[in-house]
């Protein structure tokens, strides 16, 4: 299976890269710095064009949109959440996901049973909305919405789309006090990706297989 993972240089993306490569999948990882990975800044359209040129003609069985940012932790409602922070995080967490799918659509269409996995978050949920982290929550909700609509549009082309909460994971983003390791998250997510098909397309699931409330 040919897989591409954005943000494969650290955190959950790196654990997915390691796990999939270890089981014998042919894995492209991307990172902003390159450094052994294919270079991709998901917020930069020119970077997407370069990646698309680099792997033109290669069938892609699974595209994992993992790269993300969480910069607004602890901001004060009265004085924080600078407009530039909104723009920067949406460029990565929302536009970045869209541009990645758009750039690699031709590769997905060359595969027999292609899939797209979008790493969103439980913080995307509108049913579970405890407040705070407005930019991150809104951006992950938008990524969820994007995935749900892509699932409809891509179904006729045979491309399944799943949206996932990876758990609260011990990474730079999740922090040392988070509940699970990157290996636990990656193992669960890979099982979810394997199970994804056109009957379940548009699903929003946790890494351990529970249906997540929207
Ligand atoms: N950790 C959690 O508890 C948790 C919970 C729910 C959802 N998530 C989601 O899971 C995904 C991975 O999170 P993580 O915990 O592994 O985070 P992380 O350790 O902070 O790693 C984030 C990854 O995204 C990459 N990235 C950020 N901005 C980018 C850009 N403009 N272009 C390309 N790559 C970029 C980073 O690359 P650089 O090294 O270049 O910065 C890094 O590889 C994210 O989408 C996150 O929102 C995480």
What is the compact description of this entry?
This protein is α/β, with parallel strands linked by helices and 214 residues long.
What does this entry look like structurally?
By secondary structure, the chain is an alpha/beta fold. The chain has one domain: 3-Layer(aba) Sandwich (Rossmann fold), CATH 3.40.50. Helix 1 (11-22) links the parallel strand 1 (2-5) and strand 2. The chain is globular and about 50 Å long. The chain has five helices and seven strands. 43% of the residues are buried. Helix 1 (11-22) crosses helix 5 (182-195) and helix 3 runs parallel beside helix 4. Strands 3-2-1-4-5-6-7 form a seven-stranded parallel sheet, sandwiched between helices. It has helices at residues 11-22, 45-54, 83-109, 134-154, 182-195, and strands spanning 2-5, 26-31, 38-39, 62-65, 115-119, 160-165, 204-206. Helices cover 39% and strands 14% of the residues. The site of NADP nicotinamide-adenine-dinucleotide phosphate has 30 residues, from helix 1.
List the helices and strands and how they pair.
Elements: E1 2-5, H1 11-22, E2 26-31, E3 38-39, H2 45-54, E4 62-65, H3 83-109, E5 115-119, H4 134-154, E6 160-165, H5 182-195, E7 204-206
Parallel strand pairs: 1-2, 1-4, 2-3, 4-5, 5-6, 6-7
Helix pairs in contact: 1-5, 2-3, 3-4
The protein binds NADP nicotinamide-adenine-dinucleotide phosphate.
The site of NADP nicotinamide-adenine-dinucleotide phosphate has 30 residues, from helix 1.
């Amino acid at each position: 299976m040919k897989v591409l993972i954005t943000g494969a240089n650290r955190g959950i993306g790196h654990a997915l890269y390691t796990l999939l490569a270890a089981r014998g999948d042919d894995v492209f990882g991307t990172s902003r710095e390159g450094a052994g990975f294919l270079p991709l800044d998901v917020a930069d359209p020119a970077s997407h064009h370069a990646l698309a040129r680099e792997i033109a003609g290669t069938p892609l069985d699974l595209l994992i949109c993992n790269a993300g940012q969480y910069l607004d932790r602890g901001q004060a409602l009265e004085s924080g959440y600078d407009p530039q922070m909104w723009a920067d995080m949406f460029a990565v967490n929302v536009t970045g996901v869209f541009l990645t799918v758009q750039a690699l659509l031709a590769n997905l269409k060359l595969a027999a049973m292609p899939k797209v996995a979008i790493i969103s978050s439980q913080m995307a949920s509108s049913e579970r909305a405890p407040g705070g982290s407005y930019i991150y929550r809104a951006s992950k909700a938008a990524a969820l919405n994007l995935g749900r609509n892509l699932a409809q549009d891509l179904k006729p082309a045979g491309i399944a789309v799943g949206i996932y909460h990876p758990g609260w994971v011990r990474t730079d983003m999740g922090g040392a006090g988070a509940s699970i390791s990157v290996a636990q998250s990656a193992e669960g997510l890979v099982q979810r990706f394997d199970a994804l098909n056109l009957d379940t397309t548009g699903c929003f699931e946790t890494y351990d297989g529970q249906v997540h409330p929207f």
